[in-house]
Amino acid sequence: MARRKIVYIPYTKDEVQERISKFDIRHEGLIVSTFYDGRIISNVEVSEKYWSFDFKNFAKDIIEKINDYFVPETYTLRINKGAQEI
User: Fold this and answer.
1) Percent helix, strand and coil across the chain, each rounded to 5?
2) Domain map (residue ranges) of the chain
């Protein structure tokens, strides 16, 4: 199986915030749908015990905290569906 090449993008806080703002995760019944820029990128069936994580707000908050300490030179953003498992 071919591996994807990781692309590093020059970091600007506003651009990262804009990209993160395009994500939307909806948990309806046993289906978790992940949207990016208004289009669906994943539908995943989950158990009744599944909990939706507010990735968008978490990511925005952590970016603010990171910038208090240093400014990254590059970044990469990779989202792999809308399901996390423990």
Assistant:
1) 30, 25, 45
2) 9-75
